Amino acid sequence: MKILVCCGSGLGSSFMIELNIKKILQEMQVEAEVDHTDLSSAAAEKADIYVGTRDIAGQLLCLGGRVISLNSMIDITELREKLGVVLGVPVGKV
Amino acid sequence: MLAKLLNEDTVRVLVECGEWKTALRAGGNLLVSKNYLKEEYIDAIIANHQKLGPYMVVAPGIVLAHARPEDGVLQLSLSLITLKYPVAFGNDINDPVALVITLGATDHNSHLEALVQLMELLMKKEDVEKIMNANHQEEVLQIIRQYSRVT
User: Fold this and answer.
1) Searching chain B, which residue's CA lies closest to the CA of residue A52?
2) Is this prediction's pTM over 0.90?
3) Has residue B77 got a pLDDT over 60?
4) Least CB-packed of A27, A86, B89, B122 within 10 Å?
5) Which of chain B's residues have a Cβ under 8 Å away from the Cβ of A75?
């Protein structure tokens, strides 16, 4: 499974979200490849799950994977919940 | 690493800005005046914000302003300013912004270490609040030093 985090430039926010996703996957004991990139390169990279902040998530919808839209990129609770839903891991179990 | 980049030259508190563009300029100018960024880098940040939407407002009250290395970064740099009067950036959930962090990255990797430390700070609500409420630069620098490590 591949999770791709996208932001406008692929330098700042997407990397920060990637770090948190890796932390959560470890807690959930789920294995996945996680990477980050900018919006314009995202289309060329196939992923099962695309993650972006709310205002760019709309542009990820047409890429063929599931999309997670985040209100805050530093809110690990929000990320954990939304990732849990997509991965089918109940939040209470973590 | 974080304290090396965020220091007496690059941190300001209670900056007065009327709107989002002046807030971005105020944060960027700290780095332009040190010759870390070219002036046009700030233009690129503003253009990004207009083109892609307010995605750089990464959390409630916090904007992480940046463009790309080729837009005019001369040296890896960060600045942090708090706004005396928070301003709207057009992000209905996370507005108004009271903390403007400007990042100038020279490539895709050299800034990541500082960014990790910065994020540890941003995820600690109490410390973010202390920074937003700080009346003196030294209060902010003290908090930054707690998160700064040499790795």
Assistant:
1) B55
2) no
3) yes
4) A27
5) 59
